[in-house]
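User: Reviewer 2 asked us to show a designed sequence for the structure in our supplementary figure. I'm pasting the structure tokens here. Could you produce the per-position amino acids so we can include them in the response letter?
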């Protein structure tokens, strides 16, 4: 047994010796990269490829690493919005509707809107909302550009052939005065017609300021070129140049341009704007107007009491054949007289005329109006040849005591009821 154990130990010793010898031989053949060993940094090693995660969501828009990419139509809308924004600014600059400062502010606002839409495109839900907003904004800007172009074209058509380049340049750099005339005619605009609206517009193109001066139609003036005094509105019966010269002499200015419009033109303007709806919480002052009730009259009386006017004009309603109320019944003359008395008791010193409408319904309407409380008479100062053109209502009284040449008859009529005519100014006291 000892011999076998000793023999085993010898064999194990020889095996261990062979292993150690083999290890020494392997160590002797190891190659070392001295450059890499003595370098300051270790050599770069490429990172091993990462395995794709099985649970990473994939974008249906094809973005990298699942990022959302907006559709191409979003980029197209941004391009269209940018182009239209520039066009809007250009059109506003051409029309000279806004100062430069306002244009700068508008440009900044449009730029912010563009950036907002662009930012929202990075998100799916907000991107859809922003695209809808961009479409609406682009449509509004496109319509605005078209309207501005149409307005510029219309202005160009109006001035083409009327002004030379020198005259147009003068108008844009030197102050000038324009006569604005509202003509009392229907149908076609004629050269000679009464002008019930007479406004002088003083325009300073350098400071971009306009001053409007309105002169009442019944202002008694010297009519230019006629050597006579008459109401301003009658200057238009001699032609628009007479009206311009009359106002020019009155204010000491040179009136070189004019704009005229009549009822038909005014209707066309209102229709072009889509119509104008007028709502009033007060009834018309004409007694017996269509749809008027006693409650409306009471409301009118209460309103006049609060308003405290210096003059109250009230008369009966009378239809006119060119109006929608042509078939309506006229108002009550007796109710008109009663209201005159009420207003005289409410306002002892107020000016109340005995209207021509009252004399149209009653032969002695003027005298009865005076007895009821009226203290003002207004004879017709229009030339006899043109009185029929004042078609405020049908069968208007225009002769006798209602006419200027009938002052003697008016004096006789008032003498019968114990009143006399005063030729003073008749101002409110």
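Assistant: Here is a per-position design you can include in the supplement:
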């Amino acid at each position: 047994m000892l011999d076998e154990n000793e023999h085993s130990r010898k064999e194990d010793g020889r095996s261990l010796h062979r292993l150690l010898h083999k290890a020494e031989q392997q160590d002797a053949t190891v190659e070392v990269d001295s450059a890499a060993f003595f370098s300051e940094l270790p050599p770069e090693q490429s990172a091993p490829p990462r395995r794709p995660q099985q649970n990473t969501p994939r974008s249906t828009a094809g973005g990298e690493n699942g990022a959302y990419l907006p559709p191409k139509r979003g980029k197209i809308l941004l391009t269209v919005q940018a182009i239209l924004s520039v066009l809007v600014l250009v059109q506003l600059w051409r029309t000279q509707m806004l100062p430069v400062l306002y244009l700068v502010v508008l440009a900044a606002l449009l730029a912010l809107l563009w950036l907002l839409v662009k930012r929202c495109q990075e998100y799916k839900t907000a991107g859809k909302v922003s695209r809808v907003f961009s479409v609406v904004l682009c449509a509004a800007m496109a319509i605005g550009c078209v309207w501005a172009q149409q307005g510029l074209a219309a202005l160009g058509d109006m001035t083409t052939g009327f002004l030379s380049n020198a005259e147009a340049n003068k108008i844009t750099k030197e102050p000038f005065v324009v006569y604005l005339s509202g003509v009392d005619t229907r149908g076609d605009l004629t050269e000679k017609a009464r002008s019930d609206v007479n406004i002088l517009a003083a325009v300073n193109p350098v400071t971009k300021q306009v001053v409007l001066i309105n002169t009442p139609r019944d202002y008694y003036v010297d009519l230019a070129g006629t050597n006579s005094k008459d109401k301003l509105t009658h200057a238009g019966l001699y032609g628009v140049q007479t009206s311009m010269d009359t106002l020019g002499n009155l204010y000491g200015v040179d009136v070189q341009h004019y704009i005229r419009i009549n009822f038909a033109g005014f209707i066309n303007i209102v229709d072009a704007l889509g119509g104008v709806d007028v709502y009033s919480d007060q009834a018309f002052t004409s007694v017996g107007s269509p749809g008027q009730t006693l409650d409306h009259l009471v409301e009118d009386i209460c309103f006049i009491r609060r308003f405290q006017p210096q003059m109250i004009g009230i008369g009966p309603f009378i239809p006119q054949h060119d109006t929608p109320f042509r078939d309506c019944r006229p108002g009550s003359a007796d109710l008109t007289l009663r209201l005159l008395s009420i207003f005289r008791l409410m306002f002892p010193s107020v000016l109340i005329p005995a209207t021509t409408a009252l004399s149209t319904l009653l032969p002695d309407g003027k005298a009865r109006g005076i007895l009821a409380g009226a203290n003002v008479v207004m004879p017709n100062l229009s030339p006899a040849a043109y009185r029929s053109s004042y078609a405020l209502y049908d069968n208007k009284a225009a002769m006798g005591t209602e006419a200027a040449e009938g002052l003697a008859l008016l004096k006789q009529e008032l003498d019968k009821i114990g009143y006399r005519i005063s030729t003073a100014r008749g101002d409110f006291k």
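For the response letter, you might also mention the following. Residues 54-61 have pLDDT under 50 and may be disordered. Residues 294-416 form one domain.
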